[in-house]
Amino acid sequence: MELNKENMRKIRKLILFTALLIVVLWKYEEVLEVLGYVGHLIFPFLLGGAIAFVLNVPMNFIERHLFMEKVRKNKVSDKLARPVSLLSVLCIVVGVLTVVIFGVVPQLVNTFGNLGQSITQFIPHAQAWGGKEVFHGNKEVVELINSVQFDWDKIVETLIDFLNNGAGNMLSSTLTAAKSIISGVSTFVIAFLFAIYILLQKKKLGIQAKKVLFAFVRRGRVEAVVEVSSLTYSTFSSFLTGQCLEAVILGSMFVLAMTIFRLPYALLVGIFIAFTALIPIFGAFLGCAEGAFLIFMVDPMKALMFIVLFLVLQQIEGNLIYPHVVGNSVGLPSIWVLVAVSIGGSLMGVVGMLIFIPIVSVAYALFREIVYLKLKKQGVDPAELEV
After folding, report:
1. Which residues touch 240 (CB under 8 Å, ≥6 apart)?
2. How far is CA 202 from the centre of its chain?
3. What is the pLDDT of residues 376-386, one digit of tens each?
4. CA–CA dist 119, 272 (Å, integer)
5. For the whole prediction, is pTM greater than 0.85?
6. 150/280 Cα distance (integer angstroms)
7. How wide is the angle at C-alpha 374 spanned by C-alphas 372 and 378, nearest 5°?
8. Phi/psi of residue 299, each to 5°?
9. Among 50, 87, 48, 45, which residue's Cα sits nearest to residue 66?
10. d(Cα 138, Cα 146) in Å, to the nearest integer?
11. How far is residue 315's CA from residue 323's CA, in Å, rounded to a whole number?
12. Which helix (H) or strand (E) holds 266?
């Protein structure tokens, strides 16, 4: 190999990389500690970036429809477009939180109170039915069933005692708890302010980022980074918008249908199904299991009605609503959606299920594009292979 300037530069880079790798492997505990400290420092800004990304989706929608191109030709309107759109989104978020706190939460508290009474009343009936009808008076089994007791007041008392004593022991002292609360609030405030700054200055920040990239990276690689970033944003925003809208529609359908058929816990079950529907594939069935259990405590026949209602609404949602609301926003075949949900759930739980579908979708789109380019270079028409 000729030792010219280019090769010497590559050798230096290889030696530096090898030295860093040896140091990392040798002092991995110290490296992990440093990474943890750095992660703790930048966490508010990462959280702020995530908040900005989520709020940017409705903000862009308002900005496009409220301030169209004709309106934005006016300098004053153009300057007001972004602040007004951001203020509108914040008002919507505050409005939703207000409705949840003052409208939904009291009803949920009342529902949980009634749930305690329902379980208390259900257990004696279940014991009598199980002893006589199912186990036909089997002495040992009947004694075991009758030993099951449910004291709602005692459960609440135990929970309060845990909060007063057990939680205090875990946190060591009230001062530690106060520090944790203050730290959490300050982290959220910093993240929220950082998100606001990003949203108000997103165009300027985007230009600055492009300048830095073009200054230090080759043009072809910068264009590839910009293209991948654009694809990633469009995929994530489409998935987030469609999934949230679909969850709201499904939850509303259950509240309305359960109210019409006079099934108990309509609001609680509808809200739970709306939240669990954010989890692709498995989410709605978790809501079904929770709803069936709650209603079963009140009336087993109504629980059966709820399951039938769930299957009907699930078919309507899967065949009519989901294709139009979410559609092919992520452009990922069903088998890879299942793979993404499984891997994401294993690695990061529910959050992983939500974010891995767009991530796998972006990887799938990029890999498909690379495959098509390779086929084109080899003179193979992809359409011929699909026959």
Report:
1. 54, 57
2. 23
3. 888 777 667 66
4. 19
5. no
6. 35
7. 115
8. -155, 110
9. 87
10. 12
11. 12
12. helix 266-276
